[in-house]
Amino acid sequence: MRKLLWLLAIGLLVFNFQGMGQTPYGIVIHGGAGNGIVEGRFSAEEEEAYEAALTEATEAGYAVLEKGGSAEAAVIAAIKVLEDNPLFNAGKGAVFTAEGKVEHDASLMHGTSKAAGAVASVTTIRHPIEAAQAVMDHSPHVMLTGKGAELFARDQGLQLVENNFFFTEKRYNQFLRAKEKRSEERSYLSEDFKFGTVGAVALDQEGHIVAGTSTGGMTYKLYGRVGDSPIIGAGTYADSKLGGISATGHGEFFIRYAVAYDIVARVNYLQESLTQAAEHVIHTTLVEAGGDGGIVGISPAGEVVMVFNTTGMFRAYQTSEQPLSVGMYGE
Ligand code: ASP
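A: This is the predicted complex of the input protein with aspartic acid.
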């Protein structure tokens, strides 16, 4: 009996010790923000399809973290699911440029090593986020563009496809409408045409934070336009001691206001929480400037942040402390 009690006591101690020592981990993702994301706009089937896709991506990333895998692997796993899903403006299903083709941008940043990688204006890489990862992990550079990025991706053994692999009827019709409107009123940035960028930020069991973003940019973008998504500090930023951010929205504003970096810098310099910092930048700085969009992020303590100044943002998260949660519309 006494032996049994001892064993029980030791067991409890070990259990407690593990519980105390366990760092939180988790992943938060987005599938784009926009003022077109309002209740009533999507059919029940469409809502279900978005929810299923966001769930699948979050679970893919969380499964990596749960097994003790890296935040980098979790972010890549989640983003690849979204790149493959034609519902989102990334990978297959990305929007069309003014020239009528698909051009992707993507980036990835590791918050501990500060390593970062990005590709811009690529047209044949099946999973642009993997190319960003390859730039980060296997090149001395941070950003590669166009043809060069594609040659590098080929040398890295990444899958290349014809540009029409990314074609979807829905995006092509948006392109045609944008083309028509543009000649009338130059409104190619209108709400219909700018949501669906994807991103993920993960915190792993070792405390590393990694952020990544992938997009086709904006419908009818002109002359090799590059948005914020592949720009470290604008669309993506990570610091394992402060937090990680992936952004979505009107890229020109996110670049000018260095949105992802500004949020993390406020945590550093002003000792704000990641939530406070994000709310200030999205609801004050960007609103005053006229920039639409939002961010998702995670802090080293596992605080999940999802802030947007649009009517909606496709989003989801799962952490060691909180079960899976999926959202589309504002509160
Ligand atoms: N930020 C992206 C860009 O400007 C678009 C988006 O997030 O919807 O390229």
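The chain is about 40% helix and 20% strand. Confidence is low (pLDDT under 50) at residues 13-19.
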